[in-house]
């Protein structure tokens, strides 16, 4: 489990393979703080560390990505040098600063509008139609692994306000109109909808 509070920005160093792929990611995480087999959230996608190596600025580690993940997230379109929001998994006793995030992407959205208000940013995001019912005004959503509050919702589009700190320490500040983003809806909303289906 994760909280949607990004703790580092990584960079895609290499990508090998065709069906399933292996990504090498550079990060500022000290290598001794990364366990083999650990789960790290990459732009909202939970991936398992399969190798690691120390570097002068932190570490590089490798993760394996299945064809299903490549097809259902933005990871299949990643380019070398791509910046990636990273978050290590929760440990017992960690502060719960965002909201519960599983690292299982529900769908890919698109930035359809961006407005710069000084250091603040606002985005309008188009969500896949099947996710719209899970997105509520003042509810939580994870966008590329970042826990955010929904400002407003209209049909399949929702608005977000990005504070300067979040724009600086995550990849959200660089998003432009047309960018595709990984979306994970609020876990509680998903289970509430499922319970309603079962009760019918």
TrEMBL record:
Its EC number is 2.5.1.9. PROSITE patterns: LUMAZINE_BIND (PS51177). It catalyses: 2 6,7-dimethyl-8-(1-D-ribityl)lumazine + H(+) = 5-amino-6-(D-ribitylamino)uracil + riboflavin. One of its GO terms (molecular function) is riboflavin synthase activity. Lumazine-binding repeats lie at residues 1-99, 100-196. It is an enzyme of class 2 (transferase). It comes from Hyphobacterium lacteum. Pfam families: Lum_binding (PF00677). The keyword Acetylation does not apply. Residues 1-99, 100-196 form the Lumazine-binding domain. It comes from the Bacteria. Keywords: Repeat, Riboflavin biosynthesis, Transferase. InterPro entries: ATP_synth_asu-like_sf (IPR023366), Lumazine-bd (IPR001783), Lumazine-bd_dom (IPR026017), Riboflavin_synthase-like_b-brl (IPR017938). This is Riboflavin synthase. NCBIfam families: PRK09289.1, ribE. Pathway: Cofactor biosynthesis; riboflavin biosynthesis; riboflavin from 2-hydroxy-3-oxobutyl phosphate and 5-amino-6-(D-ribitylamino)uracil: step 2/2. Gene3D superfamilies: 2.40.30.20. Catalyzes the dismutation of two molecules of 6,7-dimethyl-8-ribityllumazine, resulting in the formation of riboflavin and 5-amino-6-(D-ribitylamino)uracil.
């Amino acid at each position: 489990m994760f909280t949607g509070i990004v703790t580092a920005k990584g960079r895609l160093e290499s990508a090998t393979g065709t069906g399933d792929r292996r990504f090498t990611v550079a990060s500022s995480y000290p290598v001794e703080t990364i366990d083999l087999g650990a789960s790290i959230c990459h732009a909202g996608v939970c991936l398992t560390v399969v190798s690691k190596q120390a570097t002068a600025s932190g570490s590089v580690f490798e993760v394996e990505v299945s064809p299903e993940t490549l097809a259902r997230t933005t990871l299949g379109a990643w380019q070398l040098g791509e910046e990636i929001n990273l978050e290590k998994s929760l440990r017992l006793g960690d502060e719960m600063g965002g909201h519960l995030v599983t690292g299982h992407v529900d769908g890919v959205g698109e930035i359809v509008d961006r407005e710069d208000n000084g250091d603040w940013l606002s985005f309008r995001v188009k969500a896949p139609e099947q996710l719209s019912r899970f997105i509520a005004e003042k509810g939580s959503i994870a966008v590329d692994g970042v826990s955010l509050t929904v400002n407003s919702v209209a049909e399949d589009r929702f608005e977000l306000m990005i504070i300067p700190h979040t724009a600086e320490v995550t990849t959200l500040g660089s998003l432009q109109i047309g960018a595709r983003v990984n979306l994970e809806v609020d876990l509680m909303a998903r289970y509430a909808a499922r319970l309603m289906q079962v009760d019918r």
